[in-house]
Specification:
- It is a single chain.
- By secondary structure, this protein is an all-alpha fold.
- It is built from 14 helices and no strands.
- The protein has one domain.
- The radius of gyration is 20 Å and the shape is globular.
- Keywords: Membrane, Transmembrane, Transmembrane helix.
Length: 312
C-alpha cells in the first residue's frame, strides 16, 4: 500500500509538471495553426530542409511535423498526395526525418525541464534528421532502392476543434498521462523487487558501457524507447530532480531519448504513409547507437584531457 500511495503522489506531481509545459505550448501551437502563422515560419526553414534533396512538398511536410506534431505533418502530406506521386524512397526519407525531429516545441520543453539545453537539443535533432535524410536519399537514388509508388493509406481527420473540444481533449490527456506514469512507476518498483531490472542491466551492460550509459540510466531510456519522450522525459525529470542521476547520465539519456523514442508506435504509424519499416526502424536505432559511441569516445577524451591540464 505504501508503494501505491507513494507512486500516486509521484504520478500526480509529475503529471502536473508535464502539463505546466504541455498546456501552454499546446495553446501556442493551436494559435499558430488558427492564425496560419506556420506558413510564414515554413518559408524560413525550407532552404535548410531541402539540403537533403527532398522535394519542396516533402520539406514542407517535415517542417510542419516539427512545428506541430506527426499528425500535423500527415495532414499536410495528404493534401500534397492528391496531386503528386511519391515513391517509397521519398516517403522513407521523409518518415526518418520526422521520427528524428518532430513536435519540437513540446518535446524540447520536456527535455529542457529534465536538464537539457534547448539549443543543443534542437541542433541535435534537426541536424541528425538532415544528416540521415541526406544519406538515405543519396543511397536510394544512387542504387535505385525503393523506387516505386508509396501506398499512403492514412486518412486526414477533422482538426478544427472547438474551444470546448480542445479543453476536453486536454483534460482527457491529463488523466491518460497520469495513469500511464503511475503504471510505469509501479511496474518499475515491482521489477526492482523481483530482480527484473538487475537482469536487464546485466544483459545490456556490454552495450551500455560502449554507449557510455550507466545502469541507472537504462530504465529511463527503455521507457522512452518504447513509450516516447513524454513518459521517458517524465521519469528523467523525477530521477534528475532527486539527484539519483549524474550530469553525464542525464546528458546521455537526453541524447538517446531525443534520437530514439517510441520506436514501435511511431514506426508503425509511418507505415500508414508508405514508409519502409526496416529502413526507418533499424536506420534510426543504428544511427543513435553510432552517434552515442562516437560522442562517448569524444567525451572521454575531453575528460582525460581536462584531468591532464589540471595536473599540469
Amino acid at each position: 500500500m505504501n508503494i501505491i500511495f507513494k507512486n500516486l503522489k509521484k504520478s500526480i506531481n509529475l503529471t502536473i509538471t508535464l502539463f505546466k509545459i504541455l498546456l501552454p505550448l499546446s495553446i501556442f501551437i493551436k494559435i499558430l495553426q488558427l492564425t496560419n502563422s506556420i506558413d510564414y515560419i515554413l518559408g524560413l526553414f525550407l532552404p535548410i530542409a531541402k539540403i537533403t534533396g527532398i522535394s519542396t512538398e516533402l520539406a514542407t511536410v517535415w517542417i510542419t511535423a516539427m512545428l506541430t506534431n506527426i499528425y500535423g505533418g500527415f495532414i499536410t502530406l495528404s493534401s500534397f498526395a492528391k496531386n503528386n506521386v511519391f515513391t517509397v524512397a521519398d516517403i522513407t526519407v521523409l518518415a526518418t526525418m520526422i521520427l528524428l525531429a518532430h513536435t519540437m516545441f513540446l518535446e524540447t520543453a520536456i527535455l529542457k525541464k529534465a536538464g537539457g539545453k534547448s539549443l543543443y537539443i534542437v541542433l541535435l535533432r534537426v541536424g541528425s534528421a538532415i544528416l540521415v535524410g541526406s544519406v538515405f536519399n543519396f543511397i536510394f537514388k544512387t542504387f535505385n532502392i525503393l523506387n516505386y509508388p508509396a501506398n499512403i493509406i492514412w486518412k486526414s481527420k477533422s482538426v478544427n476543434f472547438t474551444i470546448n473540444e480542445f479543453i476536453f481533449s486536454q483534460i482527457k490527456s491529463f488523466f491518460y498521462i497520469f495513469f500511464i506514469i503511475f503504471l510505469i512507476l509501479t511496474m518499475m518498483d515491482i521489477f526492482e523487487k523481483i530482480g527484473v531490472l538487475k537482469l536487464i542491466n546485466k544483459l545490456l551492460n556490454p552495450l551500455l558501457a560502449l554507449l557510455g550509459i550507466s545502469d541507472k540510466g537504462i530504465n529511463i531510456n527503455l521507457i522512452a524507447l518504447v513509450l516516447g519522450i513524454s513518459y521517458g522525459g517524465a521519469i528523467l525529470i523525477e530521477e534528475s530532480s532527486s539527484g539519483e542521476l549524474s550530469t553525464r547520465d542525464i546528458t546521455y539519456s537526453i541524447i538517446f531519448i531525443s534520437l530514439c523514442h517510441a520506436i514501435i508506435e511511431d514506426s508503425l504509424l509511418m507505415l500508414t504513409i508508405g514508409a519502409n519499416f526496416i529502413w526507418i526502424t533499424i536506420g534510426r536505432f543504428f544511427y543513435t547507437i553510432v552517434f552515442l559511441i562516437i560522442f562517448n569516445k569524444i567525451y572521454l577524451k575531453i575528460i582525460n584531457f581536462s584531468s591532464i591540464i589540471k595536473k599540469v
